[in-house]
Amino acid sequence: MPPDNAVNDPDARHDGWKTVARFLPYLWPRENKALRWRIVVAVLLIIAAKATTLALPFFYKRAVDSMTTGGTGLSAVALAFVLAYALGRFTSVLFDQTRNIVFERVGQEATRSLAEDVFARLHQLSLRFHLGRRTGAVTKVVERGTKSIDIMLYFLLFNLAPTIIELGAIAVIFYLHFGLGLVAATAAAVLAYALATQWITEWRTKLREKMNNLDTQAMSRAVDSLLNYETVKYFSAEHREQERYAQATRSYADAAVKSENSLGLLNMTQALIVNLLMAGAMGYTVWGWSQGRFTVGDLVFVNTYLTQLFRPLDMLGTVYRTIRQGLIDMAEMFKLMDTEVEIQDAPGAPALTIQRPSVAFEDVVFGYEPDRTILHGLSFEVPAGSHIAIVGPSGAGKSTIARLLFRFYDPQGGRILIDGQDIREVTQESVRAAIGIVPQDSVLFNDTIGYNIAYGRDGATQADVEAAARSAALMPLIDRLPKRFETEVGERGLKLSGGEKQRVAIARTLVKNPPILLLDEATSALDTRTEQDILATLHKVSENRTSISIAHRLSTVADADTILVLHDGRLAEQGGHADLLRLEGLYAEMWARQAAEDEELSEAAE
């Protein structure tokens, strides 16, 4: 898993042109001939625009020479060359803009395709990856990577490549008209310009990388703080959060100032080299004119060519910086795509087929870290159609069972079976399709109630949504809302109460209609009255399904067919509620403790 500060790792900056080569298949898609033709037309337009631009100084020179030679007939010639010059300038702009129009679809399609691939890859990565990375930092990497593509394409294809063509053409023209001296001087100036730009930009890149890292840190802190808005309010920590964010933004501002100041130094160095060459070339032409070797038109001829050349060369620093930074941003995005997928389907794995939805753990050993084992050879079976409860102290491994069952992780030892099939030997999609979950914290999408319910199954109809809402006892709420199913629930469902969110989660699971139902502390965050209402609904929806309840409050699962008591990742006790109480073991101790706590709360309430 790449660390959040990968941009500061000198070995992780970018892979140079390997990064560009990796992007080329997106730019030249084999399956899309129309886009490839657009690229060909754009290249032809680049050549046409550059050829027109290179012809302009000839028109300018002839117009000036015609005017300085004198004669009434030559005025018409001079005017014709002026008109040709103006027409050539317009034609060059016309070719450039047509090229942009033709190529725009290519750039957007390449960016879209890559962004979709990155998004799909992020969903393939394991829960371990997403728990270890800040969401704000990941989204920032993707944002910078996709934004850099369009800019890089523009500079590589429409600035750098035409400039190289123009340099070669001007070298030939200068050699034919002025000799090798001016060609050598121009080449030396261009080389000095390029080397100075590269040296200063390399220095600036380190500053830029630090600035990017600080920008990511500031963004991730802001996102983290806003996602935990309620927690901030609970602890009156607004000032603390503002200070943490301010510290990050101040560090970013300091780095940005250094980066921009270094840009000023780069611009001054470039301007010095450019103007020295301009002065030397024009001075040489004036000297040649004084010797009778050159005409007045040759002065504007040289001036026009150098001006045309320096216009894109003036942007060489920007081009180099943009390409350099773009490579860094794209490489970081490709690193996300290269992150190893921890949980993968076995080659040729079939889909899970269920006749009798039983669940079994056989000697399962698992730990999130190599030196910290959570489950120690855990074995139990959930017969098809039964209701099993899993209880135990905090840290016993209850929620880990849910994550393993959904195959967010694979155990280091043992097997997990559904209807006798090892879930590692079938597709993950089919495993997850067979299990419905009502979690402790039912996080909803920032959309409508109807959308969140229908999310349970792709293609669910409005009739499916209404039937599920009715079964989840959600209709009294829906009927009270002016927009009914079109009511927005807010980010993470914050506009709904805890009980309302749980009912939406239950309805979503009913739309999925899975044969196995997992209730992971589904009522622990609710008040007693709401808990009882939700429990009644859960008991109803659990009928004719294999259900597993993971619970902290023992009273919510006392009616389970079998209760499994975990302790330190091992099965300590199992049996019915009455049987476990008679054992006077861990379960009986937990029951007595919770009963005493409930009694104390009741007395306090009175």
What can you see in these coordinates?
It is a single chain. The chain is an alpha/beta fold and 606 residues long. The chain folds into three domains: 15-338, ABC transporter transmembrane region fold (Up-down Bundle); 357-434 and 516-606, Rossmann fold (3-Layer(aba) Sandwich); 443-513, Rossmann fold, CATH 3.40.50.300. The protein contains 19 helices and ten strands. The strands form two sheets. A six-stranded mixed beta sheet has the order 6-7-8-3-9-10, sandwiched between helices. The radius of gyration is 35 Å and the shape is elongated.
Radius of gyration: 35 Å
Mean pLDDT: 79
Shape: elongated
* Portion in strands: 5-15%
Pairing-aware structural class of the strands and helices? alpha/beta
Task: Going across the biggest sheet, name each strand in turn.
Answer: 6-7-8-3-9-10
Which helices and strands occur, and which strands form pairs?
Layout: H1 17-27, H2 33-69, H3 72-124, H4 127-132, H5 135-178, H6 180-227, H7 229-234, H8 238-290, H9 296-313, H10 316-338, E1 359-366, E2 375-382, E3 387-391, H11 398-405, E4 413-418, E5 421-422, H12 428-433, E6 435-438, H13 449-454, H14 462-471, H15 475-480, H16 498-512, E7 516-520, H17 528-541, E8 546-550, E9 562-567, E10 570-575, H18 577-583, H19 586-605
Parallel strand pairs: 3-8, 3-9, 6-7, 7-8
Antiparallel strand pairs: 1-2, 1-4, 4-5, 9-10
